[in-house]
């Protein structure tokens, strides 16, 4: 029975993902045909989905998988940063922004930013988007329960706006706050997300469009690398050029839209995670095999795709990174004082923490840092990445960490380096900023942590 249920769930889930990819792309089907297909298919899909959601709710009532969640910090545990005040007057330069000056947060991207499976207890929950705990834009609870970039920024500005909350469903078209990420999206759809963000902020009465400082975090490309770079036909409606040069051109198009239409904006451009990590999961559960085959055919599907080896995929990811660096090195996004784009490489060399596996007699990646599909981030990994992204914001350009190590503490702004790091202020104060952060780091490591059992 369990096996039958798993395959029914997988069929439904893959169909939902397939529908989502179709909606995201430019699928050339007449509206009349689309309505007929939707009408014919929607009832059985709805029945399956509702049944699975009911079973999921029942399961979640009795079982809570806390292994995939960060440890809960004590209510009296203070955030380590002491310098929290915003600028005395709202700055006019993006190169003089303090964390407390950010008033609106937003994010664009794919299923990683949408939070797919982040708090899932089982595979029955894997097609839920836990947007409230997304590392770049989630706003559920506080940093003590869920470390996210907005939950950290809210310590510096309690009136922060734009965070995403709660849960949406893959393929539903739902969003939350200014988390406009779409599961299954590729870089080709990023420009559309950018336009949607601009139009939504222009209409929002709670945003002073020309005065409020906005922070937009972008991470996209996992589907480019996993599906289109090898010309897979598995669940794909149309060919997409996923070469590194085209990938960078798609990113540039979206950034150009933001630069021309979204004043007072600080953009975090986050290169994608190393998807080859999942090749090291020797002890993954059985349900992860078909999911990997579908979610990343370029690594796992030899039938419908030109399967890539681990070194080949790493070369693709390195080429993506090189193109993004080259794009920003042109200086095209540093031509005005109210807009900049900063590369935040916190995912590039991130490795899953490992633990000893008796069966294989070796240390293997800890599956609790991944969702039950063994592919997307669990909330525990979202927390590590959220802290790493926060640290990237303070680290000077050219000296940023490229991983999410567990042992790294929260870094803090200081009197000598109070601003979010950009290419301009990093070049001027790199030595001062680095030495200041080193002092903060040592202070956090040597004091104040011993009395608390949870330090992330």
Structural overview:
This protein is α/β, with parallel strands linked by helices. Helix content is 39%, strand content 8%. The chain is built from 12 helices and 8 strands. The chain has a 4-stranded parallel β-sheet with strand order 1-4-5-6. Strands 2-3 form a two-stranded antiparallel sheet. Strand 7 and strand 8 form a beta hairpin. Helix 5 runs parallel beside helix 7 (244-261) and helix 7 (244-261) runs parallel beside helix 10. It is globular and about 60 Å long. The model is unreliable at 1-9, 15-19, 21-42 and 444-450 (pLDDT under 50).
The total count of helices amounts to 12
Q: Which sequence of strands runs across the widest sheet?
A: 1-4-5-6
Quickly give the structural class: alpha/beta
Helix/strand order: HHEHEHEHEHHEHHHEEEHH
Number of strands: 8
Helix content: 25-40%
User: What's the shape?
Assistant: globular
- Low-confidence runs (pLDDT<50, min 5 residues)? 1-9, 15-19, 21-42, 444-450
What would the average pLDDT be, to the nearest integer?
Answer: 85
Termini separation comes to 39 Å
Question: What share of the residues does DSSP label as strand, in percent?
Answer: 5-15%
């Amino acid at each position: 029975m369990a096996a039958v249920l798993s395959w029914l769930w997988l069929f439904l889930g893959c169909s939902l993902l397939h529908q989502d990819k179709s909606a995201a792309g430019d699928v050339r089907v007449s509206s009349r045909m689309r309505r007929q297909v939707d009408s014919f298919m929607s009832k059985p899909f709805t029945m399956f989905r509702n049944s699975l959601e009911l079973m999921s709710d029942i399961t979640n009532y009795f079982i809570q998988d806390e292994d995939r969640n960060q440890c809960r910090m004590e209510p009296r545990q203070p955030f380590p940063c002491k310098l929290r005040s915003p600028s005395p007057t709202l700055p006019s330069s993006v190169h003089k922004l303090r964390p407390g000056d950010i008033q609106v947060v937003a994010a664009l991207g794919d299923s990683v930013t949408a939070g797919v499976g982040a708090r899932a207890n089982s595979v029955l929950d894997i097609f839920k988007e836990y947007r409230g705990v997304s590392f770049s834009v989630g706003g559920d609870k506080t940093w003590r329960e869920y470390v996210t970039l907005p939950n950290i920024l809210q310590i510096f500005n309690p009136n922060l706006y734009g965070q995403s909350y709660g849960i949406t469903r893959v393929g539903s078209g739902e969003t939350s706050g200014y988390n406009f990420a779409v599961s299954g999206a590729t870089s080709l759809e990023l420009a559309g997300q950018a336009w949607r963000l601009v139009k939504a902020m222009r209409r929002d009465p709670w945003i002073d469009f020309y005065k409020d400082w906005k922070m937009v975090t972008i991470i996209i490309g996992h589907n480019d690398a996993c599906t289109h770079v090898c010309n897979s036909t598995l669940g794909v409606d149309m060919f997409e050029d996923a070469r590194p040069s085209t990938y960078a051109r798609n990113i540039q198009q979206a950034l150009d839209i933001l630069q021309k239409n979204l004043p007072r904006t600080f953009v975090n451009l986050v290169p994608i995670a190393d998807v080859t990590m999942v090749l090291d999961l020797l002890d993954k559960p059985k349900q992860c095999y078909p999911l990997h085959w579908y979610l990343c055919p370029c690594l796992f599907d030899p039938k419908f795709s030109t399967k890539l080896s681990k070194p080949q995929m790493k070369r693709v990811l390195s080429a993506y990174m090189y193109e993004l660096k080259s794009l920003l090195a042109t200086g095209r996004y540093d031509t005005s004082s109210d807009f900049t784009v900063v590369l935040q490489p916190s995912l590039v060399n991130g490795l899953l923490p490992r633990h000893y596996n008796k069966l294989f007699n070796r240390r293997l990646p800890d599956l609790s840092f991944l969702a039950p599909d063994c592919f997307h981030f669990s909330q525990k990994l979202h927390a590590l990445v959220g802290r790493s992204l926060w640290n990237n914001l303070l680290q000077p350009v050219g000296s940023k960490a490229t991983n999410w190590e567990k042992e790294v503490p929260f870094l803090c702004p200081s009197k000598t380096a109070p601003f979010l790091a950009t290419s301009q202020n990093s070049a001027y104060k790199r030595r001062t900023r680095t030495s200041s952060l080193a002092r903060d780091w040592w202070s956090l490591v040597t004091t104040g942590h011993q009395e608390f059992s949870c330090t992330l």
